[in-house]
Amino acid sequence: MSENQIFKDIYNGKRVLVTGNTGFKGSWLSIWLLMLGSKVHGLSNGIPTVLSHFDSAFLERRMHSNEGDIRSLDNTIGTIEEVRPDYVFHLAAQPLVRESYVDPVTTIETNVMGTMNVLESLRQVNHKCTAIMITSDKCYDNVEWLWGYRETDHLGGKDPYSASKGAAEMIIKTYADSFFKRDESNVKVASVRAGNVIGGGDWAKDRIVPDCMRSWSSDKTVEIRSPNATRPWQHVLEPLSGYLLLGQMLSQDSKLNGEPFNFGPNANQNFTVQELVSSMQGYWPGKTVNYVDNSDPSKKESGLLKLCCDKALHLLGWGPTLTFDETARFTVEWYRDFYSDNKDVYAMSCKQIEEYVQKAYERKQVWVHSNA
């Protein structure tokens, strides 16, 4: 099963704009789209980390990159007018909860006004376009109940990051209902919610996997806070497969216009930070961990959060592919290869995409077979 046997008919030769293309998820999505034959354009205001998947895979040479800030409406309109994309995947954001406490203004400007600027640009240009707006599972008002959040549950959050994502969702809905569902609109839009995505190529600060990999690559002991926090861990390719599938189906079915979707792991795949680290240690033997309690009570992070993805299953036929252990393996193997002497990051990443699709095909995932 080749990765180009799925999604190829819909994305091959199409102009696709990925905002936040220099980030972790944006760079993986850009590679997948390149493999599908898309003419990939990016919009980003720089590279967010010193080490980056974007740089290491030499994506600057493989796609059309536009440098600009989505906080500028004029700049965003100019990019949409120039590219006139068939598809937009909006990932540009300030993605860190703890950073939102340090700089709430930039977080809200980027995540709220930036999202509005992308939507307003699409409204003004009004060329035929399908837009997938990526927010976060933290858009929900998390009361830490035991069941997964549905797309109809309350939005909000106690921290500036969560509030910004809840507000972005409300703006997406407003633009969909007020403008994009009109007969004269050529734009269709949907929002997607996923979180706690891990995988190779992430070097952001205050994240469990990058912290481990930076320390382990230098044979240092990593210090881990909040070992008992539970998260719906998933590999980066899981939600990206959902985004690509939704982009395809939304372009063909106006009934999906304006709809939000969760993309997360199976309900039984919520594991603690300590369980994730232990699983990763199994794929990098001899690496050590020290669990410490250095949490700041003034910077609250959720202890329990999971999603209900029944809507994506029933309307799109989408479901997650990898087991928890495979998620850990994919992640650690990528970093171990990265820190080896002979590495081709683009080839490494393409190989993992191919393996992921193959596993989905073997496990008879509906979204793979419906595209074959």
Description:
By secondary structure, the chain is an alpha/beta fold. 43% of the residues lie in helices and 13% in strands. The protein is built from 14 helices and 13 strands. Strands 3-2-1-4-5-6-11 form a seven-stranded parallel β-sheet, with helices on both faces. A two-stranded parallel ribbon has the order 7-10. The chain has a two-stranded parallel ribbon with strand order 8-13. Strand 2, helix 3 and strand 3 form a beta-alpha-beta unit. The longest helix has 22 residues. The model has no long low-confidence stretch (mean pLDDT 92).
How would you summarize this macromolecular structure in one to three sentences?
The chain is α/β, with parallel strands linked by helices and 372 residues long. The chain has 14 helices and 13 strands.
Kindly list the characteristics that best describe this protein.
14 helices; two-stranded parallel ribbon; seven-stranded parallel sheet; alpha/beta; globular; 372 residues
Rg to the nearest angstrom?
A: 19 Å
Low-confidence stretches: none
Helix and strand composition category: alpha/beta
What is the string of SSEs from the N terminus onward?
A: HEHEHEHEHHEHEEHEEEHEEHEHHHH
Question: Order of strands across the biggest sheet?
Answer: 3-2-1-4-5-6-11
Count of alpha/pi helices:
14
Strand content: 5-15%
Could you tell me the number of beta strands?
13
Residues in helices, as a percent range? 40-55%
Distance between the termini: 9 Å
Mean pLDDT: 92
Please state the overall shape, judged from the principal axes of the Cα atoms.
globular
Largest sheet: 7 strands, parallel
